[in-house]
Structure formats: C-alpha cells, structure tokens
User: Which sequence fits this backbone?
C-alpha cells in the first residue's frame, strides 16, 4: 500500500516536472524566435530605407524617405534578450563550452560526478550573477532613466540579465540532476 502511494507521488511529480519543462521550453523557444525575427525585421527595414534614400535618380527627387532612428535601439535590445534567453537554451542542451580532455579519460562514474560538479558550479555562477543583476535592476528602476529614442525605461532592457540568468540557473540544476541520476548524458530533455 505504501509503495503504491510512493509511486503515485513520484508519478505526480514526474508529470508536474514534464509540464514545467514543456512550458519553459515553449517560453524559451518562442521568445528567442520573436527576438530574432524582430531584430532581423527592423534591421532589414533600416537598410532598405537607407538604400532607397541613397538612390540618386530623377524619379526619387521629390520622394521623402522616412528615417527610422528607433530601429537601432530595438535591434540592440532584442539582441540582449536573445543572448540571455539563448544562453538558457544552451545550458539546457549542454551546449556551453566545456573541456572534456580530462574528464573523458576518467572512469564513467567519476566522469559523471565531475560533470555534475561542473553543472553545479555553473549554477552557482548563474545564481551569483542573478543576485547581482537584480541589484543592478533595482538601481536602474530607481534612476528613472529612459532610452534615448524609444523613451522606454532602461530597467526593461536591463531585465534581460536577471531573466536569462534565472532561466540558466534552472537549466543548470536540471542538467546536474539528470546527469547525477543517470537519466541523461547531455542536457535536459
């Protein structure tokens, strides 16, 4: 009876974990896609308008081509979010840089332990950066500083760092757990 209760409990937590991972995967994937497409779109628009404005042709004499000064800011801010959310995806997939020359020569059990320790160290680093970035974010919220062209609060731009490092921290813990429990060699499913 007690074993059956434990199995139901494990099954519930397994399902909950799977739902959490699916939701997190979708958020990361869609976010990166939106940031990337936004960046490409605004850069394409800016280049196209610059090219049209630079055409020296009699038909273009009376054409007033609009300038889009906001595109550079949008592209830069989209890139910031793209990088930090993308780093979380790389953490999930075990795609961050690692030196395997030493660990690949170890016995499998010791190699697994070393990889787990490396993931826990990466988690600790991410957690420290998360803590510090929250301090920076709070400071930025207090300044009231806005971006030069879009006039959006700069803390919304700086929020990319704590969001990305929070996601990375979660992913590093997941990878460490999976490696330690033999559930997977690389990243998170």
Assistant:
């Amino acid at each position: 009876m007690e074993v059956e209760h434990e199995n139901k409990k494990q099954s519930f937590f397994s399902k909950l974990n799977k739902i959490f991972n699916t939701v997190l995967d979708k958020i990361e994937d869609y976010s990166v896609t939106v940031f990337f497409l936004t960046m490409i779109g605004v850069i394409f628009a800016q280049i196209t308008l610059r090219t049209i404005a630079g055409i020296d042709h009699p038909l273009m004499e009376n054409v007033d081509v609009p300038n889009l000064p906001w595109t550079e800011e949008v592209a830069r801010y989209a890139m910031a979010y793209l990088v930090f959310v993308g780093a979380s995806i790389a953490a999930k997939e075990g795609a961050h840089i690692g030196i395997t020359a030493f660990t690949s020569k170890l016995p499998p059990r010791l190699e697994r332990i070393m990889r787990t320790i490396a993931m826990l160290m990466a988690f600790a680093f991410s957690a420290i950066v998360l803590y510090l970035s929250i301090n920076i974010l709070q400071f930025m919220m207090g300044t009231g500083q806005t971006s030069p062209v879009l006039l959006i609060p700069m803390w919304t731009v700086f929020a990319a760092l704590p969001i990305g490092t929070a996601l990375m921290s979660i992913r590093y813990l997941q990878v460490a757990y999976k490696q330690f429990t033999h559930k997977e060699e690389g990243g998170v499913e």
